[in-house]
Automatic annotation (TrEMBL):
Residues 12-192 form the Class II aldolase/adducin N-terminal domain. InterPro entries: Aldolase_class_II_sugar_metab (IPR050197), Aldolase_II/adducin_N (IPR001303), Aldolase_II/adducin_N_sf (IPR036409). Keywords: Lyase, Metal-binding. PANTHER family: 3-OXO-TETRONATE 4-PHOSPHATE DECARBOXYLASE-RELATED, FUCULOSE PHOSPHATE ALDOLASE. The lineage of its organism: Bacteria, Pseudomonadati, Pseudomonadota, Alphaproteobacteria, Rhodobacterales. The keyword NAD does not apply. Coiled coil: none annotated. This is Class II aldolase/adducin family protein.
Amino acid sequence: MTDHSDLHDKMDALIAIARRCFDRGLQTNAGGNLSVRLDARDAIVIKPSGVGFAECTRENLQVVGLDGTIATTGGGLKPSKDLDFHLDLYRIRDDINAIVHCHSPWATGYASAGVEIPCLTVQTIEKIGRMPLIPLSPNGGPQTEVEISPVFRDPSIRAAVLANHGTIGVGPTLMAAQYLAEIIEETAQIAYVRDTLIAARGRSAAELPRFGTAAGARAAAG
Ligand SMILES: [Zn+2]
């Protein structure tokens, strides 16, 4: 039985995070998608296809069972076309309660160049560790659960970048997944500035000092 209080709380949280993502310029137009798992664990709320992050409402959000059964087709719309990879990630990882997938421009630029975004700040190492670059599907189309799920079967993976497409952040809450979407984009901008400056000075990344987290430095100091 659907807990309507939980459903409305999750819908409102999704609407707020989608608005934040839009306001920060991480997703324009009607692309990208985001979803959140209901407390009952067997269903999710997901953005509909063809609706922008700034236009999500309780009336147009979609509710879908983890088995793919569509419970609510709000506004006569359909769930996001990336529904299948969202469902699969919830099925394979109990710790994932929310997914933010967006086409943020700096990160997608790296992904379109076939370059993995380096985790080059202490925060990125701490919060993400590594964000693998997932190639296009073999027929050249966008990534599906066939390409995405194997990467996320590693429980340490919290973020990934999709070649020629965008980013994925997952987390225990929508805010946690959104923070990752923001860190991925911020890191791509920092990487671009770093790489541009060191190239202009005729240096290479290998010459830069090694660094890590405060915890790592404490451990190294014994
Ligand atoms: Zn997409």
